[in-house]
Input
Amino acid sequence: MLKKMFFQIHWFLGISAGLILSIMGVTGAIYSYEQQILKWINTDSYVVQIQNQPKLSPAELYLRFQQNQPEAKINSVTVTSDPAASSTVNIAKEGARRGQNIMLNPYTAEALPELKGREFFQFVQQLHRYLTLGPFGKQITGACTLMLIFFVLSGLYLRWPKRHSIKQWFLVKPKLKGRNFIWDLHAVVGTWVVIFYLLLACTGLYWSYDWWRNGMFKVLGVERPQPTMQANANPGRSGKNTENTLPPETTVQILEQSWMGFNTEFSDRYSSVTFTLPKKADGKIELSFVDPIPQHERARNTASYHYSDAKFYDVQLYKDKKLNEKVMSSMLPVHRGSFFGPVYQFLVMLAALTMPLFFVTGWMLYLKRRKQKKLTLTARQSATAIPLDSNTTPWLIAYASQTGVSEQLAWRTATALQEARQPVKVKTVQQLSLSDLQQAEQVLFVASTYGTGEAPDLAASFEKKILSTKTDLSHLSYAVLALGSQEYPDTYCSFGHRINAWLQQNAARPLFPTIEVDNANHEHIQQWNQALAQVTQLELQAMRIDKTFDSWTLHQRELLNPGSLGAPAFSIELTPEHEAIWQAGDIAEIQPGNSPERIQAFLNEHQIAAGTQVPSLQQSIEQALWDRDLTQAKPFDSLEQLLEQLPVLPTREYSIASIPSQQVLRLVVRQQSDALGRFGLGSGWLTEHAPLNTSIALRIRNNESFHLVDDNRPIICIGNGTGIAGLLSLLSARNRQDYTQNWLIFGERQREHDFFFAETIQAWLQMGTLQRLDLAFSRDQPEKVYVHHKLREQAEELKTWIAQGAVIYVCGSINGMASDVDQALIEILGESSVDQLRQDGRYRRDVY
Output
């Protein structure tokens, strides 16, 4: 929940403050190189031709400039040791706090060309600091800078812990596509700039808030200068229009004496020196000078020269300051990076320029996330956008879904009808009443069959209450779309067929025969669409359930039960080549493939040479056949014709045993074999045929009906065998949330061989993540003991937990375990109570 909260705040502040931070980043990058750019475009102002005569002294510069511009009030005079560098006088100017610098030829005191670009950089500075909006803009930029600190820290928190390899954390992966690439760019570049952004934000707030500035002085142990002292810290730049009470002759004399004293003391220890003209005859003049090779542009030494006794006092050399004093007296160089050298300053500039990248990619991710979340809601939104034909008979669409496929097809059917101006109402079957059916004239059922012929969990009450009644539905026209899997031939689409049989028994009229869909097969879905279009005489848009697989790496494969009486079970670990997000309880859908040996046997059988290229696909025949059902081949004239005959192998689904923060996606897969000893498609592919470190086609499917509740209510996890996978993910998430009211009931054959993930489970028990642990190992004693026996043994404890609001999660085999657990719950709690638990979302199952 904490991570979810940080994520919501992160993206909300990002899309709202990101534009201002982008402006601040770009303008800051530009402004950080103000001096270098000004010198580059104003060479004729900064550089002069060297002459065969000494440069004018500060006194001579003052005198000649005063003669040329007698109305000007001079604040300071700056000379340099470089014979090719210009000199500077600073004069008072109304509206300019620091006065105005005028560049002079150091040999003649002639004014050099006015600096080009100075107004531009003043605008950039105002835009960077205040958005050119004055005090109001300063508050905005200050708040956004605080948000930047939050972005950096929350971004690290949201990304941590993921894989700790350097490649994952610091290398952008250009092979990624779409949202995965955008996220990778956002996260990886964000990791690059973490240090830079933290330093920029923490130092930038120095100018935004007094409380922050005071805190910095206190934390670094530096006494904060008083305002008057700050004003004199950079004496040559003051723009105060204080009247000079000294006559020019006296000022010239003071400058001559000070210049002579400075050269005596520091003749070879400066690159430039600035003399701040005294306003009264108090016997001293303030000056500052820069070392021959300064640490940065603000590394200035200060001194007070008492011309009355020709001595220096209060000499403060920058190099002698402690590090904390250097930092607090050089906040601008620290902020722009020059404090740490030109390389770091350049990196800071690049980091600042990337600020718009996060604003743009953040918005793109936000929009794509919204689009993903609204896949099944599109039809609802479009319902009001299209004018409906009031003369047509309304449609009622009812769906029964366990994993969301039926719901999606129901809403896509509704969308197609609404686009044809048909009024439509959509309901889940558990919301359906006899009154709804008696009042409706046209009903479409989209019904999944779960497990071995059962209704989806939430539809169980509909089957008990509605399908067991008799009523007159002779007025009703209907059609049924039945979803199932042909891997269960005895119960294929049986719930849909039971709905159809009940409707016919009550005199309802079918619009067309029930249409069966095998594993969301696209062709079967189109049959439904075409039949509906034919009977209604409407032009209906095509619909399908698209499956887009991502590429994952098979990272590890470990046998969990060596020596077991049962079939081998493996822990399969996969790592993504993209940012992968899922929730505890979700499903991994795998696209299995054929082993190289199976493909070679097929090529030999059909006399196809190995390595033959398929022109239309621009790949070898082995690559084209890796995911095809090779049992469906018929005589063919070309490779293209052969491939058209061979459907893609059906996918396989597995409960995910881990959560994203564990850095891997873990599955628990038991090898399945047929009578001839051939491995099952999915289990054979994952446990035997696919080599380690190769790519696996996998997509994560949302399994909302098995997600954790959003609070700290107690949970009871019941499962057997590989069903431990779904329960592990739930308990791992609860462990991260510090929710400890957890009870695990797990069963397998022998404790010695089949106690999957025993160390983790025992550790949870010792640390308090598990309050109760009940184990049922059926072969460890003469009389077989299963999880439903443990439930009955703990019947009173079960009632106590249920009374406290506990949610039951069941994961594992539907044959035996799930049905036995269901019967035990009915015996202990009562059938009506179990039905109510289902309706309230407190009895959730992931069984297979």
User: Anything to note?
Assistant: Confidence is low (pLDDT under 50) at residues 228-242, 378-384. The radius of gyration is 39 Å. The longest helix spans residues 2-31.
